[in-house]
Amino acid sequence: MGKLMFRYLDKGVGAKFGAPIGMALVDKKAIAAAEVSEEAALDRIAAAIGGPVAINVFDLDAVTTTSDGVIVEGAIVTMSAADGGKIHKEFGILHMEEIEVDEALLAEEPHLKPLARMYPGRKLFRGPDPAKKLIPVHNVCMTGKAINNNSATEVMNAVTMEEMLFPILGQVQVMNEGDVVFAITGGVMSVGIGMTVAEKFGRVFPTRQFAAGETAHDCGDYAQTLKANIPCVVAPKDVLAKHILDVLEEGLIPGKHLGCAPAVLCVAHAFGSEIAIENISDRAWLELESVGLSKQHFLKASLRLNREEILARADEIIPGLIKPQRVKSTEYFRKIEIEA
Question: Are 9 and 333 within 8 A, CB to CB?
Fold first, then answer.
């Protein structure tokens, strides 16, 4: 056995009240290098932190998707929640399910068709298999005060009732030692996280419940308030735009293949990409209009900016976030090394 390295964000760091519990991110290669099992590594991290902490294990060679269907390199393969130096053996750990990418899957989930060209031969992970978890409905782990929810993209403190969103792109930025943004979510993000695509073993939904162009929130004006006043750690908007452009250039269409989240729609419109406007439901338009994005806005002539222009103007093109602060992740997510 050797040394085990992980990246750690202290409780209370970030926007508003900051992270409600500690956040530990670990690469599966670091676990392998330490010559311990994944379970033993998680136990060591839990013991080293002592207090409430969410622990996410990454396979940076695998791929996943955002909730609106954008392909991302780097995937969470195991999530955990610990407190008091321990992990609840029944409810404190959950493994994401590897999803076989075959013709049947691609027929049901066309947003995955670029995978073979973008990341040939990579493993795909999103959420767990519902048949292999004890807690119904939510893809969540719980131990003591620590709650790690939505396949490790949202954390909560069960005592203070505080929560923080930590979307997958933000976590990948940390694993790759890139910049992240500390911010308060705001109404645009609150609306956007409900614009999902239908996926098997999804990060939030285990079955294909909400197709591209629909809203999972389905609550009109109220959607902009659901997650509008909590801290988040997200990827910078130019990084988000880069990932959206990658799949737009592969021929994917927002509202048909991709979810109709504000970021996706705004990047597509600025780029001059097709948007399946008539496939976006009236209920989804109600939510988009509540944050100032009407159907008429996207029917206007596009600026047809090129890729470099969109990346340079991403903060202007993509709406959302309150009091954003772009920081170097390495200055806030400390590298910690412990005995394995």
Answer: yes
Tokens in use for 292? 């100032």
C-alpha to C-alpha distance for 16 and 121, rounded to whole angstroms: 41
| Whether the Cβ atoms of residue 257 and residue 321 lie closer than 8 Å to each other | no
Sign of CA dihedral 293, 295, 297, 301: positive
Helix (H/G/I), strand (E/B), else coil: 64:
strand
In DSSP notation, 258-304 reads B---HHHHHHHHHHT----GGGS-HHHHHHHHHTT--HHHHHSPP--
Ranges of residues in the chain with a pLDDT under 70 are none
- What integer pLDDT is reported at residue 229 of this predicted model? 97
Which pLDDT value is given to residue 176? 98
| Distance between CA atoms of residues 335 and 329, nearest Å | 11
Query: Do residues 14 and 160 make contact, with C-beta atoms less than 8 angstroms apart?
Result: no
- Residue 311 makes CB contacts below 8 A (sequence gap 6+) with 238, 241, 242, 245
- Residues whose CB falls within 8 Å of the CB of residue 312, separated by 6 or more in sequence, listed in order: 238
Residues in contact with 72: Cβ distance below 8 Å, sequence separation at least 6, in sequence order: 63, 64, 65, 66, 168, 169, 172, 243
Q: pLDDT for 169-200, tens place per residue? A: 999 999 999 999 999 999 999 999 999 999 99
User: How many CA atoms does the CB half-sphere of 2 hold within 13 Å?
Assistant: 9
Angle between helices 237-248 and 168-175 (to 10 degrees): 110
| Residue of 170, 148, 172, 177 whose CA lies nearest to 46 | 148
119 residue type, one letter: Y
pLDDT at 205: 77
How high is the pLDDT of residue 208? Answer: 78
Q: Which of 160, 171, 169, 158 is nearest to 56 (CA)?
A: 171
